[in-house]
Amino acid sequence: xxxxxxxxxxxxxxxxxxxxxxxxxxxxxxxxxxxxxxxxxxxxxxxxxxxxxxxxxxxxxxxxxxxxxxxxxxxxxxxxxxxxxxxxxxxxxxxxxxxxxxxxxxxxxxxxxxxxxxxxxxxxxxxxxxxxxxxxxxxxxxxxxxxxxxxxxxxxxxxxxxxxxxxxxxxxxxxxxxxxxxxxxxxxxxxxxxxxxxxxxxxxxxxxxxxxxxxxxxxxxxxxxxxxxxxxxxxxxxxxxxxxxxxxxxxxxxxxx
Length: 257
Known about the structure:
Layout: H1 26-36, H2 46-51, E1 76-78, E2 84-89, H3 92-105, H4 114-125, H5 131-137, H6 144-150, H7 159-164, H8 171-177, H9 193-200, H10 203-217, H11 222-256
Antiparallel strand pairs: 1-2
């Protein structure tokens, strides 16, 4: 939440600035969220902000929050009817589902965790920052955490070059320490129609669909109907996730044959 009270309990902040590559321009994404929530005091649209000029002699213009959104989550939960909750934040479980879906769409194979990305960042930062600076960026108050949980499982030293007394190379080390090696170009993110059909004909799914129809036809309690529909959606998702995982594994093996 963008509350001024957060200043008292936030240990560290992470600075960033604009970037010429759109997907790395964090400022634009945060501004989009801010305008969607009408969060900025004095600015109701991007054009309003674009018309603003930084006063002569200054290098920046601090933006202020509207008071009514100070306790509002920045990332909000989506309700069952497709709306957005003003008071409930996006859950970690839902965020991780979205994160994994984004990785699948980008062609990454296997389950890559946020910790793996943080570990990759930590090992890059370790080469250019002090121990204190690294801990601050990773929001770690105990410097021993890096050695226990974040040090890469691939050595950062080119031992072959050292043995041969040659200049060290780092490209292969960075590749093995990062997550890029898990990316498979063209990896499918959706199931083919024939597999989707087998899921729709699954005996358990058909039985759950019958239960929902019986409850609706019998004018059952709304909570019972909602619970039955949720159970059906969950089971379909489980079957699709399992089938997609198997399909992607076979696709990778076939591609590498």
